[in-house]
Amino acid sequence: MSMLTRHTNDSGYVISAYKNGEIHLMEEVYTSPVLISASELAENWTNKPLAQLCTEDFALAVEWKPEILIFGSGPELKFPDFQIIRDLREHRISLEVMDTSAAARTFNVLRSEGRHVVAALLV
Predict the structure, then answer these.
(1) Which residues contact 95 (CB under 8 A, 6 or more apart)?
(2) pLDDT for the residue 7
(3) Distances (CA, A) of 4 to 15, 47, 82, 106
(4) Exposed/middle/buried for 9, CB within 10 Å: 0-12, 13-18, 19+?
């Protein structure tokens, strides 16, 4: 497990570490997919495998109105169905796809820049 960032205040959610099967948000450890923004967290975001995800699974992320939605596909880079990407574009949301380790790092960097970013992370 690698440490991604240290969080020392209550300014919102920061991903502190990721390893296969675990997402660490400050002091909490999550072993199921999460949807996260700087100020909001949806635990157990989905129980579907990647191949079964559909646009409706991203409805809460759309409600949070991010400028960028980062999708962490788990330990390996895998893309969701292209229809999801197309539908999110209709909401003017850019979907960036990467493995969850890279997605966690990218979320923290964009968040630290003050960007309105949401991460949908599979473990």
Answers:
(1) 69, 70, 71, 84, 85, 88, 89
(2) 37
(3) 7, 25, 30, 10
(4) exposed
**3 state SS of 88:** helix
Structure tokens at 61: 């992320």
Token readout for 99 is 């493995």
Average pLDDT per run of 10 along the chain, which is 123 residues long?
Answer: 40 90 92 96 94 97 96 97 96 96 97 96 96
Query: Please, where are the H alpha helices in the chain?
Result: 59-63, 82-90, 100-112
- Distance from chain centroid for Cα 106: 9
Structural domains of the chain, with CATH: 2-121 (3.40.1230.10)
pTM of the model: 0.90
Find the angle CA(79)-CA(81)-CA(19) to the nearest 5 degrees. Answer: 35
